[in-house]
Amino acid sequence: MAVASAPAPTVSGGPSLPARRARSRRRTPVFDWMALPAVIVLAGVIGYPIVRAVQLSFTNSNLLSAGAAKSVGLQNYKTLFTNDPVFWQALEHTAVYTFVSVAAAALIGLALALATENLGGAWRILRTLMLTPWGVPVIVVAFLFYYMFQDRGGVVNQALTSLGIIHTPILWLGTGKWAMIAVIIANVWSTTPFFLLMFTAALASVPNEVIEAARVDRAGPMAMLTRIKLPYLRNAAVLGSLLMVIQNFNNFPLIYSMTKGGPVYSTTTLVIYVYQLAFDQFHLGFASAVGVIWLIILLVFAGLFIRLMRTNPA
To answer: Which CATH class is domain 89-269?
Structure first.
């Protein structure tokens, strides 16, 4: 025996609910025309340079060449991956500079946020002072640490010598290993306040009921940290780290002002290498190929960030 299906629900004799939903979807515009001016500006400022760089990456464009640029197909990319050790060094230095800086800044920012969590009254000014480096322009930070890490007269060597840690000055900016450490220290000092701010805001969002329940259950400080607070800090840590990874991949003024990518490419990152190829050696075609690879890497991290924002909007 056939069973008649129930009629679609209606409201006050109006159209059915599925019909109203379909009509609502039809009325939703695919593109908001109010955003058209911003789209035009972005297309001119960002879109055209990207398209032009991709186009140049398939040519032998050189500003020192009198002839017109000729298409070379994938030759620039082939040379880049098979016959350019500097590119692989720059990629390695970019990864080390970025991920070590982000990890160190995140851990220090977390420690400072936890240490200043319960400060009240006049002590809150201490947290404000900790945020000061975030407001200092990057170029100022670069020159500040450039003079601090001077082998003669630099405050870092003087302090280490006074404490008896070293007996001869360290060539911080003249030795490959020490130069990378110096720029990472400068970057960590500049970006730690960002993580301090992120983690402080995340700690403020932990429900008081959860904290009180943990105290009633006699949870110790370590259990309170690992089982109660850290889970609430996960989203802030992941999203903040992705933002800082993208920023550090593009960090040009700090490294260039302190070391100019030297000594002997020891602090050359992808952004420094692109600058050297394009504006020192004038190989626009090859520099554009490096820039395209750099852009693809950044798009991967940007895609991860957008996906995390959609899945964890809080």
So the answer is: mainly alpha
